[in-house]
Amino acid sequence: MIELVRRGFFLGLGALDLSRERAETLVNELVRRGELKHQERKGTIDELLRGAERAEERLRKAVEQAVAALGLPTKADLARLEERLAALEKKIK
Which domain, by its residues, includes 66? Predict the structure, then answer.
């Protein structure tokens, strides 16, 4: 559920799934146009990827808070309920 909300949020923002390949393509284009020095290429790629990871983590936390505020069950909640249900079924049989 959280994953679905997260993906929907990214789509809503028009965010990119920034893979290493995509970051390299973007940075190579900047180098080609002379907007970035070749020596800065690797550092810029790494910086882009770290920034994307930080943004994804912030978004993940925001989505978790929104899900909690809505009172929606998490995967862990559902797993606990399944375990309790299995235990009750076992007692009945």
Answer: 2-92
